[in-house]
Amino acid sequence: MSDVLDDLVALRPDATTIDRVWAPQQQSGTLAAVLADGQRPVARDHRLTRPPRQARRRRYAIGAAILAVAAAAVSLQIVLPHSSPGGATPAAAEALEGLAITAAASDPVDLAGPGQFRHLVVQTWQAAMPDRQVPETWQTFESWTASDGRSWRHNYGHDSTGHKIDQSLAFPPGGDQTFSASPAFLAGLPTDAGRLRHYLRSHASGSSSRDEAVFVAVGDLLRTGLASPKLRAAAIRVLEHTPHVTIGTPRTDALARSVIRFDFIDNSKRANEIQSLLFDSKSAALVEEIEGYGSGQPWFTSTLVSSGVTSSVPSQVVAHAQTVH
């Protein structure tokens, strides 16, 4: 029953549509019955429950090989109102809807076409762990992804042992799991928020709960900026209907850009931990990801420094790249 309620919430139409096709006097009784039914105990799904892990960075929840999506999607006609239980807080849901509208209307100028490459520069920071004698770590990941999914990456900085990193890698289509989903994988996903949510809740794993896995999966989908405007909007709307999602602060990222921050906090699964997705308030692009403690102190950040489209990969990166299969 919980999965059915998830789909009902995700496929919610606006209030005007509800009133047009469903008499207002019938709504309250039907909603009460549905919510009452949703309180029945549900068997725990151990496939999607994972024990807590101390280091969860690079938790690629979706994978790049599953493309058969549309046939498995479910469409339901009766939906719950926006304010029903089982989703983000009202303030977060309202902000997410605004971002989704912005994302859907955005110009896909950053999507690489034939002969072009999506170019990203991402900087990560990992706090020192004195108990493990692990120093503070800074790394920069520069990547180039072709429209066919091939990618090159240049990593530089210092690893967790304090050693200098200067490494170039080449990946086949869908092979670079550091920056997540390939263009082909993204193109196979539904752009309807309800169907996308159903898919993610059925396939995302590697987290402490299904809700957390969906939150992580949305970050995986949007991290590279390779998703189309419609898919970006759908993924953001999935967060509207994901429990434990709230508005967070501060409202600027590590580069002082104006952002809207959304926190995932589920103390019943991960006490005193916060996972955050930060979206540019003007473009609705995902520009930063943070993991930290309930006190607000971060222990990991991943910040998008720059992004765009280029016509080539630097020759020195190609020449020195180690092929990863």
Relative strand content: 15-25%
Percentage of residues in helical conformation: 25-40%
**Spatial separation of the terminal alpha carbons:** 41 Å
Radius of gyration: 20 Å
Would you tell me the structural class of the helices and strands?
Answer: alpha+beta
Number of strands: 10
- Overall outline: globular
Count of structural domains: 1
Polypeptide structure, described:
With 325 residues, this protein is an alpha+beta fold. It has one domain. It is built from nine helices and ten strands. It has a ten-stranded mixed sheet. Strand 6 and strand 7 form a beta hairpin. Helix 1 packs antiparallel against helix 6. The radius of gyration is 20 Å and the shape is globular. The protein starts with a helix and ends with a strand. 36% of the residues are buried. About 21% of the residues have low confidence.
Describe the structure in brief.
The protein contains nine helices and ten strands. The protein is α+β, with helices and mostly antiparallel strands. It has one domain.
